[in-house]
Amino acid sequence: MALTGIQIFKLLPGTNCKKCGVPTCLAFAMNLASGKAELDSCPDVKPESREKLSAASAPPIRPVAIGYGDTAFKVGGETVQYRHEKTFYNPSVLAALIEDTLSPDEIAEKVKRYQKFQYARVGLNLRPELIMVKGGPNLAAAAKAVIDNSDFSVALYSEDPSALKAAAAVLAGKNPLIGPATAANIKDVAAVAAEAKVPVWLKAKDIDEVAVLTKALNEAGVKDLVIDSGARTPKGVLQDSIAIRRAALVGQNRDYGYGTIAFPCEITPDLGLQVAVASSLVAKYGGILVLSEFDGSLVFPLLLARLNIFTDPQRPMTVVEGIYPINNPTENSPVLVTTNFSLTYFIVSGEVEGSRVPSWLLIKDTEGLSVMTAWSAGKFSGDDVGMFVGKKSGIAEKIKHKSIIIPGYAAAILGDMEEELSGWKVLIGPREAAHLPKFLKEFKA
To answer: pTM, whole model, 2 decimals?
Structure first.
């Protein structure tokens, strides 16, 4: 049973040492109770208290780390049924299935092609993360071909425990997900996972058998699990995904408190329909989604859907503060500055790109507010913007002139910017982004 913040506070050291990142032990206790902090953030908890707190503060859906390097990810760890209640934290992972019947050269060609499916969006790199290698006798060789030719994390799919053991050895240090653990092989797969210290995915006949298998794996010492309910229809897999989440969060049933894995590739051979199934599971609790292959025209929309679902709804989508070169600018190109609200960025950058005028676009962090709102809130004031342009952004090292274009809606900051930016010429740009192309073509430093 979960403890209250006060109950947790009584078990903490009470030193207010700030090592956890918050000012007081009480604040940390409240964060721990609400799922906003992890117990490991406090290094001074006594062993007896840690034991009590570990069980009480454990999230209802266990977070499981999988993979390595830049493609490492977590499944589970969610604390709410609906994203507007708080937010979702661990995005659905896109995986492609590769059979071990392919030769190492064929696998290498595939994963090198898949590696190119990476897209820059609002300062983020969107990409698929996982290759699911399926087979038996050649499973280890196929897994090795994946990691030798790409940075994808790897999951293993074989009901032969000996094949899983050999492949897990090849992937030592890569933290692969192995499985499936079924009613028939659960003891042997659990032994392989315990020896290799890797997470397991289980495959049940139905949602009722899920609880039986999770209990059996827990008793065998395997705690890091991912659930496949066994459903292989669009309706069935979506219903099970929702039911598993509800059982863990609403019903507080620890037997269902794990992330999920689904196989659209085993529901239909049509890649387009697989993506349709996957998109429904991005919205409704799919942890890992395995497609038969990756295709850029279909993966990109899925990645965008995932980005939208797993962006905190209580905070605006933002762009990373910094310098954005557009159309290959030079040291004589115009410089513009605006806020980091993503919609503002996309509109302004789109018009600048459409103008074909090489330009530098400076994005200032305004906590995701638009120009007018940020100016009204004091987050796009003349002195702050001037400080950012002149001393923080680094743009002065990239240009010969000292001219900066500000949004027309922020014309009021002109005077303060001129005081902050001694020797600079501050130009007021158009109020509407649609007028930027004409303005830039007439620009003179």
So the answer is: 0.77
